[in-house]
Amino acid sequence: MKRGLLLIDRGSREDEVKDELRYICSKAKESGGYQFSDYCFLEVVPPFIEEGMENCFKQDIDALTIVPYFLYPGKKVKLAVNKAIEMISKSKMKIKIAKPITLHKSLPDIVHAKVDDVIAKNKIIFSRKEIDVLLIGHGSKDPNAKTSLQYVVDRLQDSYRNVALCWLEIEEPNIKQGIDVCAKNNPNVLIIVPYFLHRGAHVKRDIYEDLNPAIEKSGIKNIFITDHLGTDVKLIDLVIERAKEVEK
């Protein structure tokens, strides 16, 4: 059976986001044994879900697996899934919709890897147990979003001196509040993790509007910032795993 894979992402105007998605699709196709792999967007810019699925229907494949490429459960995921379901009747192809990539054991491992990269590149002499970590999430009105990031924080706690979370927008603690909490713990080193899939506008610009002044006022001497989650190989493996779960 010839199989295809389609990622549904939230959407971004940044070219780097499209580059990352193309890379992830290429590697997932190769590692997962798919004959075709592509991405589409829920909103912001095309290709939108309808266009993405129509393109899949034109391919020489018998089955299609759709993976909602979202870090948080909630309304956006439900909307993406519902839009995909509406398109299923337009094809005789066997179509499966996987779970989003949230609440998975690989996500804490990816954060560990980002922190370890910073430790190595900056020749930080402190061990993990002497380091504080702050994760910055996007923020959502959906309570499940906080649950999904707290899931990661809880699984990091035993590895570091302190682990905290904050949000770019909508929810609290906001970035300033998050930095303030970290400062009260008087850290040897604070490593900040932008908990975002892509290098979009939030990672490139938005978080720094609040982060830079908060850092300047914090009094914390040693602060480092990791890369976003990006194209980590464990993230690609996670996409394939979610797909295989429904293909079975």
Walkthrough of the structure:
By secondary structure, the protein is an alpha/beta fold. The protein has two domains: about 5-100 and about 230-245, Rossmann fold; about 105-225, Rossmann fold (3-Layer(aba) Sandwich), CATH 3.40.50.1400. About 45% of the residues lie in helices and about 15% in strands. It is built from eight helices and eight strands; from the N terminus they run E-H-E-H-E-H-E-H-E-H-E-H-E-H-E-H. The chain has helices at about 15-30, 50-55, 75-90, 105-120, 145-155, 175-185, 200-220, 235-245; strands spanning about 5-10, 35-40, 65-70, 95, 130-135, 160-165, 190-195, 225. Strands 2-1-3-4 form a four-stranded parallel beta sheet, with helices on both faces. The chain has a four-stranded parallel beta sheet with strand order 6-5-7-8, with helices on both faces. The radius of gyration is 19 Å and the shape is elongated. The chain starts with a strand and ends with a helix. About 40% of the residues are buried.
Secondary-structure topology with pairs:
Blueprint: E1 3-9, H1 15-32, E2 36-41, H2 49-57, E3 63-68, H3 75-88, E4 94-97, H4 106-121, E5 132-137, H5 143-156, E6 162-167, H6 175-184, E7 190-194, H7 201-218, E8 223-225, H8 233-247
Parallel strand pairs: 1-2, 1-3, 3-4, 5-6, 5-7, 7-8
Helix pairs in contact: 1-8, 2-3, 4-5, 6-7
